[in-house]
Amino acid sequence: MVVSDYSIPVFIEGLKKIYYPDKVVLSDIDLTVVEGETIGILGNNGAGKTTLLRIISTLLLASNGIIEIFGLNPSLDAFKIKQLIGYLPERFSFYPYYTVADILNFFSMLHQQERVDQEDLRERVIRLLDIEPFLNVHIKSLSKGMLHKVGLGVALIHNPPLLILDEPTSGLDPLARIQVRKFLLDLTDDFDKTVLISSHILEDVEAVCDRVFILEAGKMLHQPLWISELKHKFAELRRLEIKAPYLTEIAKDFIDVDEILYVNTSARGIELYGKERYVSNIYKQFKDSINTDSNIISHLISLEDIYFLNHAKIEWMDFLS
């Protein structure tokens, strides 16, 4: 099935990528991205996140399957597609003795924009990223967070409708991460961009994405899930952490309980994932027998927990249905 719909930023069906001679890095990928949404791709190192983004960005060709970017075929229309996407790889570098202004001007000219458009877009990018005080600073003198902002500026300088970001907050300090997250929220809210983000930082994905899916060993564990829907479902679940090694023997009492999704024991104690009402009752039952409040904690379920449950092959979606 070929869609050839110019309003759909990304359409992928049955995508497979094999590196010679027989290393399969992506298999059976089906994905449709609609205009204006932000989709997060989660996965461990080596899961295939970067390979998938490089294929969407036309930097790699798929071995099999269908892929269309705004209805265009990457094999035939790579140049046109490059005008429609802004790509920020996880690792990038610029000429160290260029200033920030030099870099923005250089990449603006590479996209062959009209001079008036160049200046207008350049000013918009500078305002959006709040980098005007750094325009005359050399690249070699920038902090990592500021360098990331310049990278985002380069990805945006030609005003592409689709932005592809590979680990945009990886390695940044907490303040820089917050700034990048705010930028991404502003980008989708005020500039109507479609954004694809790969990350292993679950907190960032949860904060900025509309939908999310997990890649593991080159395969999608599920179709993209709405973050808002997940949060609604999460409200039914709790994770109870009991830091009391002497109680691990009782873990077996919860394994076959319908209201308990998963029981995990370790040298530190027990973790229970289960329905909110049942877990609350367990919390009340054990609270008085545990030494301090810090040793028994009831947590709301987060995206990090869902990531863990997926990795542990726990069917949490069936449990909540």
Could you characterize the architecture of this molecule?
- The chain is an alpha/beta fold.
- The chain folds into two domains: 10-230, P-loop containing nucleotide triphosphate hydrolases (Rossmann fold); 236-320, Alpha-Beta Plaits (2-Layer Sandwich), CATH 3.30.70.
- Helices cover 35% and strands 26% of the residues.
- It is built from eleven helices and 14 strands.
- It has helices at residues 49-56, 78-84, 100-110, 115-129, 144-156, 174-191, 202-208, 227-234, 276-287, 303-311, 316-320, and strands at 10-19, 23-33, 38-42, 64-69, 85-88, 162-166, 194-199, 211-216, 219-220, 225-226, 237-242, 260-266, 269-275, 296-300.
- Strands 3, 5, 6, 7, 8, 9 and 10 form a seven-stranded mixed β-sheet that branches. Strands 12-13-11-14 form a four-stranded antiparallel β-sheet, with helices on one face. A three-stranded antiparallel β-sheet has the order 2-1-4, covered by helices on one side.
- The chain starts with 9 loop residues before the first strand and ends with a helix.
